[in-house]
Design goal:
Structural class: alpha+beta
Shape: globular
Strand content: 15-25%
Helix content: 40-55%
Oligomer: single chain
Number of helices: 6
Order of helices and strands: HHEHEHEHEH
Length: 128
Amino acid sequence: MVESNERGRIWPRADNKLTKEITELLNQATHQKKLKKGANETTKALNRGLADLVVLAADTEPLEIILHLPLLCEDKNVVYVYVPKQADLGRACGVSRNIVASSILRDPDGAMHDKVQKLKDKIEAIVE
């Protein structure tokens, strides 16, 4: 019963194809130093208005440690999405540890701006 209730809170959730695109973009953001890793850094980036896209892990235990992030994203008009595994998110961010949350930083003149915008459009299509 609790399991199904928690899974209801994990939305929008990326499918396998979208997850692959997200991990590739996170990897590029890591190399360009446009990525914040972890729930605390992601929260700070959102509060400071620096976050452009937030990626959360769906298998976070307990889920409550990241449940404040979707509310903050909606408050700041930032797109967010859940990927299935913490381990995949950690690998995409270039670290060997599991990561529960990450954010790609806003960079309107950067090389990744168009790719981030296209990905945000795909995520918004899931929501609608």
